[in-house]
Specification:
Layout (H helix, E strand, L loop, with lengths): L1 H19 L4 H25 L10 H12 L8 H21 L4 H18 L6 H11 L2 H6 L2 H21 L12 H17 L1
Helix pairs in contact: 2-3, 2-8, 3-6, 3-8, 4-5, 4-6, 4-8, 5-6
Pfam families: TM_HPP
Protein name: HPP family protein
Keywords: Membrane, Transmembrane, Transmembrane helix
């Protein structure tokens, strides 16, 4: 009897490993195209508006958001509410903490990230890269700090909307990928999409 259980467990493990390691080339292709275009548009805007090495539009948290929004589109953290809300809440918290404690980095940095997490939880907009958005407001260059609350609108809001629009386009190019994939957003977005398709 124990040998049968071991064999059954072994078969289940092999099956799970097999399913988890399957390479879906279509999935990889659309993840690549979406993230390439999303970050590419941000980089292009950056190259037009700013010169030098100071990347204002290319904040690091957008790279992490791209992994979620283009690579793991079914995750609750990848949904539009979390993407937009998480970054905006975190950016606002980060700028506020930076203004209250501008020279005390050992208090400002952990306070900004911790408060961002709490406020994302309260508003149900938890998006892990949001913590980096709050941190960038504290440790960013002088150009980013000089933006003040404009940091929330540009680069954060502008960048997030570019990532979201790109995700809505490229994550819905095939029938196997649907984005958003949770809640009311999914129902409303896909209803509108069907209406537009039927009219054309």
């Amino acid at each position: 009897m124990p040998i049968q259980k071991i064999k059954r467990g072994y078969r289940k493990t092999r099956y799970i490993l097999y399913k988890e390691t399957l390479v879906d080339y279509k999935e990889h292709f659309w993840s690549f195209i979406g993230s390439f275009v999303g970050i590419g548009v941000l980089a292009y805007i950056q190259s037009i508006q700013f010169s030098g090495h100071d990347a204002v539009y290319l904040i690091g948290s957008f790279g992490a958001s791209s992994v979620l929004v283009y690579g793991i589109i079914q995750s609750p953290f990848s949904q539009p509410r979390n993407l937009v809300g998480g970054h905006l809440v975190s950016a606002f918290i980060g700028v506020t903490v930076q203004k209250l404690a501008p020279d005390i980095i050992w208090i400002a940095a952990p306070l900004a990230v911790s408060l961002a997490i709490i406020f994302m939880q309260i508003t149900k907009t938890l998006h892990p890269p949001g913590g980096a958005t709050a941190l960038i407001a504290i440790i960013g260059s002088e150009k980013i700090k000089a933006l003040g609350y404009m940091y929330v609108l540009s680069p954060v809001l502008v960048g997030v909307l570019i990532l979201l629009i790109t995700a809505l386009i490229f994550n819905n190019m095939t029938s196997s990928r649907t984005y958003p994939s949770h809640g009311l957003y999914r129902k409303q977005y896909h209803k509108i999409r069907k209406r537009l398709r039927s009219k054309s």
